[in-house]
Design brief:
2 domains, two-stranded antiparallel ribbon, 14 helices, elongated
């Protein structure tokens, strides 16, 4: 799902242990993962057993029926206590920040929240993978059961035209059946950023985009392009005022002819904030399939 090379802040936050257990138990008991988890003589995955608070018993004392009843009791207790994804953690704050700007619905936010927590708690992926290889529909059913959302809302959240996919924050692989952990892909580096305290939306994408530095040239330096620049400025001003998404402009020219400085000077003259790709080889206003189209 997400890279496991992340800050483990969520893993040390006690607010997440109950919901981690809830999600895994729902996957095991409602999506047939228990058949692979509770073997005849032991639990099949010691890490999942430990996070659930189940003792991995010696072979001679393990009882499959008793183990199943234990899991059912644990799930019933968590649901009776109203366990849910926390709303007062750093991750929850950052997801609200992102979700409010992108117009994410409740199911979108909970899927993203699960993906981030899963980066810090690998037992989530291990537990959900016990449900076997999943189609797109199977992933939607699993997420619906684990998060408590109608499957229609999960399908809408994972639609290619929905905000999560359009912004490339989180996408689902529809090509073939895989285990859960191989079906969802999060934007590189985003899970780490969502685990850190952020006050501004842009800070969540520090590994991908940067604020452009002030221009070294002014539009007067491009007097020979004044007519073209005037047309382009009007076009971009209209797009910005109408908050249009997916507006693209191609500026062609040989390397070193001042394309980047032209863009910086023009956007500065418009009184707008220019964002650039955090790459040593490219400068982009709003690359396709990144959150920049929502941030500029």
């Amino acid at each position: 799902m997400a890279s496991k090379n992340v800050n483990a802040a969520a893993n040390t936050d006690p607010a997440y242990l109950p919901v981690v257990r809830l999600i895994i138990l729902r996957a095991l008991l409602r999506c047939n993962g228990v058949a692979a988890f509770v073997d005849y003589d032991d639990y099949s995955d010691g890490r999942v057993a430990r996070v659930l608070g189940c003792t991995q018993a010696a072979n001679r004392s393990f009882c499959k029926r008793s183990a199943l009843r234990t899991l059912q009791r644990k799930l019933a207790g968590l649901e009776r206590d109203g366990v849910a994804l926390p709303t007062d953690t750093v991750i929850a704050h950052n997801i609200r920040l992102l979700g409010d700007r992108l117009g994410l619905q409740a199911a979108d936010r909970d899927i993203l929240h699960l993906a981030v927590v899963g980066a810090a708690w690998p037992e989530i992926d291990l537990g959900l993978d016990l449900s076997g290889n999943l189609t797109h529909g199977g992933v939607c059913q699993l997420l619906g059961d684990c998060l408590g959302h109608p499957i229609e809302d999960i399908r809408a959240a994972l639609d290619d035209r929905a905000p999560l996919a359009r912004s490339a924050i989180l996408v689902i692989d529809r090509s073939r059946s895989y285990s859960f952990s191989s079906k969802l892909e999060m934007m590189e580096g985003l899970s780490e950023e969502l685990m850190l305290q952020r006050d501004e939306l842009l800070d969540l994408f520090g590994s991908s985009v940067l604020r452009s530095p002030p221009p070294n040239l002014q539009l007067d330096d491009y007097a020979h392009l004044s007519e073209d620049v005037a047309i382009l400025r009007q076009y971009l001003q209209t797009a910005c005022s109408q908050r249009q998404h997916g507006v693209n402009v191609l500026i062609y020219g040989r390397p070193g002819t001042g394309k980047t400085e032209l863009v910086r000077a023009m956007v500065h003259a418009m009184g707008r904030q220019l964002m650039e790709s955090n790459s040593p080889t490219s400068t982009v206003i709003a690359p396709r399939s990144t959150p920049l189209q929502h941030l500029t």
